[in-house]
Amino acid sequence: MQEPDTFEPEATRRDADITESSRANRGWWDRNADDYQVEHGTFLGDDRFVWGPEGLDEVEAELLGPPEELKGKDVLEIGAGAAQCSRWLAAQGARPVALDLSHRQLQHALRIGGSFPLVCADAGALPFADGSFDLACSAYGALPFVADPVLVLREVRRVLRPGGRFVFSTTHPIRWAFPDEPGPEGLTVAASYFDRTPYVEQDDDGRAVYVEHHRTVGDRVRDISAAGLRLVDLVEPEWPSWNTSEWGGWSPLRGNLIPGTAIFVCERDR
Question: What is the mean pLDDT of residues 144-154?
Answer without folding.
Answer: 98
